[in-house]
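Problem: given the chain below (634 residues), write out its structure.
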Amino acid sequence: MLRDTSVLMDEKRVFKPNYQLVEDAHVKNWEAELEKGKDLEKYWSEKAEQFEWFEKWDKVLDESNKPFYKWFVNGKINLAYNAVDRWISTDKRNQVAILYVNERGEEKKLTYYELYREVNKMANALKNLGIKKGDTVSTYLPMCPELLISLLACTKIGAIHSVVYSGLSVGAFVERMNDARAKVLITADGTYRRGKIIDLKKIADEAILQCPTIETIVVVNHTGQAIEISDLSGREIFYERLIEGESDECAPEKMDAEDPLFILYTSGSTGKPKGVLHTTGGYMVGVATTLRNVFDVHNGDLWWCTGDIGWITGHSYVIYGPLLLGTTTLVYEGAPDYPDPGIWWRIVEKYGVTKFYTAPTAIRHLMRFGNKYPNIYNLSSLKILGSVGEPINPEAWMWYYKNVGKEKTPIMDTWWQTETGMHMIAPLPVAPLKPGSATRPLPGIDAEIIDENGNQVPLGKGGYLIIKKPWPAMFRTLYEDEERFLDVYWKSLPGGVYRAGDVARKDEDGYLWIQGRSDDVLKIAGHRVGTSEVESAFVAHSAVAEAAVIGKSDPIKGQVIKAFLILKEGYKMNTALIEDLKKHVRYELGPVAVLGEIEQVEKLPKTRSGKIMRRILRAQEEGDDLGDTSTLEE
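Solution.
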């Protein structure tokens, strides 16, 4: 039962838009654009017109079989054609499409024309391996140009791609490959991470013994480790040899708007991984529109999303979104703090990055090292910053704004999910900003906060975040698990609405504040308290870099809060600091914040996309089984 989740943290700061950004913005009037978005079909139909369709759709939205919605019904299109081919006959032909940089300072640039040729060679090579429309190709690759080329090649010929993040263990790798029934695996000799080379081929070799559907393994010689042709098995081939002699022309497959595009496995804070299935037309329209509007992408921009392509952020906003807009996307292979915590800002200065998109967990990690590193470098090229992943707490927002944005650059705090495919709640550059709030649902998105009976909750009260109407980039099902798709997302709340799984509240300006996952909410003395608000209160203390909290059983209160804290450099946990932290959190949140224990830790259990896995902390604390840990960073 969802009880009182009244507003605890009262954030009143408002930051007005940068007047220069407003003047140049694609969308100059936020309210007018929100109003346009209320006519769902007209709005998204207009956005779809910017692409080249082989055959136009008969109907924008088919709602006859809810929740199995269809977008741009009977429209025929190819996403790779729109992301690459259509720029070849324009002045973008010789513009850099992909700028690859790694932690060793190496770089590689591919223009749109060079990318076009490489994608076509790989597409033809895949066809010669017997891959056809509807077949699945898996990748287990680092953040390298060959990963983007391989995915675009799949899209060009109508194959479904399923990316396995290059940090996953053998068991998680096998589970995903077998579930998707992949025919081809594209992997590499290794990847660079904090000065070391991680041997991906060794992991792939072990996993492939348990993957009976794999017919061919393609190996990218990425790090130059000594792998000889004689070391390869009969079904293995080097990437360079595979594409050697292939034609650099390849006709795009005519795809129906509802044809599958990719399967991406997600587990996050839950158990067994879910195979999220996205389709072609609506996804394409959604990701391109949201990137263009939220980050106001123009000709001449250098876009950098630090997300890994193993996750949805990388799919939508490292590859597809930027290339669909004809911009340059920076692809980085390496850690945010190696060889030192200034590496990201050094890259921003060197290449003149204009739009930068990263996760709150990365910002909080870099905050541990103080203000020194972002202040060493000239970051004046930056025009817009972004945040993705967990809710960004006001303290991290302000650090990011002051030290990286120099109090001139707005922060686009975006809320969305693997399942949504695209930004759902986010500001536009013309919107007033409140630190810690993702502002309002984007134009064309109908989001609300309700209680367990389906009633809209009063302002300032917490409830379940739901999406009331379909959106174009929405996932269509969970791969071969339709029942779970219905039970988890569509049947658990009344009204046939999409349940996001988050708890949120709305303020008097209609701004939404995400309070955390509904299964992470703390129940203290009859009150429900969002984990993100308690963690935010801790991080607001000068000694704390990162925080995670869980509820611990208490015979009187029901639950009390146990906090796991990573302290900033120069601080150590002691009795005086514990007392000061307790006073600070009670001051921030009031008497509802009943603190039980505070523990200093060196690391927090996180998914590789940066989300804190509180269920792992709970399980460790209570001596329970840890469940699925395949997406843990460590």
